[in-house]
Amino acid sequence: MYKDIATPTRTKEILTKYGFSFKKSLGQNFLIEPNVLHRIVDFAELSEQTGVIEIGPGIGALTEQLARRAKRVVAFEIDQRLIPILSDTLSPYSNVSIIHKDILKADVRQVIVEQFIDVDDIMVVANLPYYVTTPIIMKLLTDRLPIRGMVVMLQKEVAERMAAKPGTKDYGSLTIAVQYYTHAETVMHVPRTVFMPKPNVDSAVIRLLRREQPAVHVSDEQFFFTVVRASFGQRRKTILNNLMSQLPNGKEKKEQIEQALHNAHIDPKRRGETLTIAEFATLSEQLYDMFRQEA
Asked: Which residue among 149, 177, 253, 262 is least packed, with the fewest CB closer than 10 Å?
């Protein structure tokens, strides 16, 4: 068995060998605690028939753990300086491919077609760069890729927002966007002490399992999310005031908005964070005909 990459000593050895310096702009924080990585891989419930997509493999600490458990691992790395390091550290694993590309610009569906032709199950497992976590997750969800789900490490506060329940301070438009597509659960908190260099924030691992169908049915997804964002425009405002101020020509349509809220059985004095995703769907349907020409 090869020595784990994710120890302080081995990580320092690799960094020194290649004269690697961390780039703050890329949010590079490498894990140096194997037990944390083992738990992340456990939460992903991989099998010998699973293909894994990783984003930001760094020097390969998580990648090697995935390679030991999955059929195939494809990792996207944006930093050219890490490509030769990964070729070295992951040389024992023939089931790993590294793609030097920004995941946000990549055709992930095409990569899946080419790389995962013989797998039955696909998971995204990653220690995500914190500065770009939300765009990455939303791209993977809205592209409707054939994945079972994601187990990703991210900033603790963002994880709490994604997995939040109605009526809590963390519940917002991001919650609705993520839970529309997935079942979201924070499965683990990770202290900042197990990273090199140590980040300024605590981390959490969230598991997002894709729903077979979205959580609610709506006539127009784009309009549904417009209504959701409008409802959280200013958290202290009532839903009526937010909709009036955030939707196109909302002030002129106060009576129609009030009627839509009434039809949806929603008190106009409630705040957005108290509405369930089902209530947002009902409200969106009531408002759809009224605003679809202008949204």
From this structure: 262
* Burial state string for 85-101 with b = 16 or more CB within 10 A and e = fewer than 16: bbeebbeeeeebebbee
Cβ neighbors of 139 (< 8 A, separation 6 or more) are 103, 104, 108
Of 197, 202, 200, nearest in space to 186 by CA? 202
Contacts 24+ apart (CB under 8 A), 9-18: 11/59, 11/61, 11/196, 12/196, 14/59, 14/85, 14/88, 14/89, 15/59, 18/81, 18/84, 18/85
Q: Write the pLDDT tens digit of every residue in 97-151.
A: 999 999 999 999 999 999 999 999 999 999 998 889 999 999 999 999 999 999 9
- Distance separating alpha carbons of residues 9 and 1, to the nearest angstrom: 17
Q: Tens digit of pLDDT for each residue in 18-54?
A: 999 887 777 788 999 999 999 999 999 999 999 999 9
Type and span of the H or E element at 212: none
Q: Report strand pairing: 182-190 vs 96-99.
A: unpaired
Which candidate, 124, 152, 129, places its Cα nearest to that of 51? 124
Give the position of tokens 């493999």.
Answer: 57
Which residues in the chain belong to E strands, given as ranges?
30-31, 50-55, 72-76, 96-99, 121-127, 149-155, 182-190, 195-196, 203-210
> Which is nearest to 220 in space by CA: 293, 120, 136, 145?
293
Tokens, residue 221: 């997804």
